[in-house]
Amino acid sequence: MSFDHTHRYQGASSINDDKLLLSTAERGGGHPEFFSGRLTSPAESATALLAVAEVAGKRYYTPPAMLAALRRPADPVVTSDGERLRFESFSACCGVYARYDLLADGLDGEVHGTGTTNVDVNEPLRKALTRVGAAGELRLHVGPDRMVAVTGEEALIEKRVPLPQRWLRGFAEVQAASARTSPRIEVSSAEAVRFLRGLPRHSGRAPLWAVQAGSGLRLTSRPSPRAVCLAGTERLRGLLPLLRFVRGLVVHGPEVDANSQPAPSVWEWRLSTGRVVLALSPELSRGFSGEGGVLSSLSAEGLTDDAELIAALRIGYDVAESAYFPRELPFDPAKIESKHPRLKHARQLVAGGLVRSEVDGTAYVRSGELEHRVTGTRCTCQWWTHHQGSRGPCKHVLAAKIYLRGGPMQQTA
Fold this sequence. Notes:
Residues 364-405 form the SWIM-type domain. Pfam families: SWIM (PF04434). Keywords: Metal-binding, Zinc, Zinc-finger. This is SWIM zinc finger. It comes from Amycolatopsis xylanica. By secondary structure, the protein is of the alpha+beta class. Among the domains are: 2-72 and 106-164, no CATH class; 340-413, no CATH class. Helices cover 22% and strands 31% of the residues. It is built from 10 helices and 24 strands. A hairpin with a 2-residue loop joins strand 2 (14-16) and strand 3. Helix 8 (341-351) crosses helix 10 (395-406). The longest helix is centred in the N-terminal third of the chain and has 15 residues, at 42-56. The chain is globular, with a radius of gyration of 23 Å.
């Protein structure tokens, strides 16, 4: 399922006379013109932008049920905060999040405004980006008007761009997962290049773990303190074309020990005028959209009236600066709950009178023929037993939370 938005593009994205013209979607009757000017590291920027676009076209895992219903890749989105540009995408399986931060040092021009929009990165543009050299000048115009259209034609192009609901959930889940990480490993450009070049093309379904080894990195099969999970080495190998621009690598992950389960990881590749960030889900078969890390927040009463919570779902998290950044996502707050089945089912359980509690706060939730015991964030259901809370709360924990917060207390002996 996806949110279908009809976007009008002034023209196709292209490169013409060393000028990179990124066609963006109109909003409110006009084009969102974010930036126009020269890029100070043209080859680096072209390669990084291409890397983000390539992730959007990749699928690293395909459930058998989806083999007959594959969708076209979605377009990357670009956000301007008035100082930099951030290009973002997800892989088709939603297990890889990619972002290119084009920082102020990489922009020699004028930032016209702030906001978020889709960017048309078409096949001719992808091919042209691979031919950009360091010696030439590359100018970026995000939000072209009629004066800079490549052909000079003014005809608008209708293009229906599906923005998958998985992306909308994924954006929220990635920022939640990223905010729980810390820098665990940092290596030089030479060690980063050596590590990436040495990765196997495929590592199988079992996640590996990256650990610091002297001044470099090595992979192991078991977690340990300060190790970072790496599920699917092929998900990093897509950055091989970027290696000549890498100035260093910082790997971020949550705190783990010898008994830890697979966890998300964030790989920050530092460039001369920007950085490319890849966030990887804990396992190849897990997309960020299904992690459920924000479900507890979404279960709050009065969600659609809570401006702060809605804003929180529109932000990203920058691990390099340990700070959040704004992003304008095109979703209807009133429809948020319908995009999270666990939350929807939890409210149905409460509304159906299937939740009761004891004076100590222990809740019992009936689902089908079974009654599950909920204590805090733990549940006796099979789903929770299998995931142990690693993919957010189950519907029974959510139902208990909603009930204990606002429902009538039904005390039992």
